């Protein structure tokens, strides 16, 4: 079968391309690798999940049509339903592995699962991955007090605690505001490097962070080490 359009990546950009493409064309396909997990024995599994990093957002407030905000997961579920309703064929979990230009000008996409899809046009919406902290102790305490991505759980369950959010862009800002709903938590925003929070984050997030009594912004820092016995207990930082 010759597709008119194949999109690689099922995050916000890929789903948006699928919705717009399928509203004008037949034969639109979206390929997404899905959620990756690693079991205790080291086995890697991929499960169906679209939405990319956006699904970890606790509240998206600057998107058209949602004056009271919407969670990233809810927005991505709506986008997936819309893409399917318009006729997009979704292949997930499936991992694109190669792209070949054929003599007739069409493209051939192969996947690690053995799929071969010929298409007139390709959109690569591969998305991003979180930058990992390289400080000693971080890897050992992953999921034991250290996590990547914005939290979506009820922050009140944490009780009285200190939480460090490392990062100064919008994802960090959304995480901070979500966690700050717990009045017993002290949130410290650690901005690495020389850029200020004003150079990285949207103004509406900055204004709310500054108005939050339990949030402190610390700029120009570097994370040196994570310490703890089975769970994160201390984070060592230094001024740049």
TrEMBL record:
Keyword vocabulary terms for this entry: Flavoprotein, Oxidoreductase
Highest taxon above the source species: Bacteria
Keyword Flavoprotein: yes
GO function terms (MF aspect): oxidoreductase activity
Annotated ranges, domain FAD/NAD(P)-binding: 4-233
Protein name: FAD/NAD(P)-binding domain-containing protein
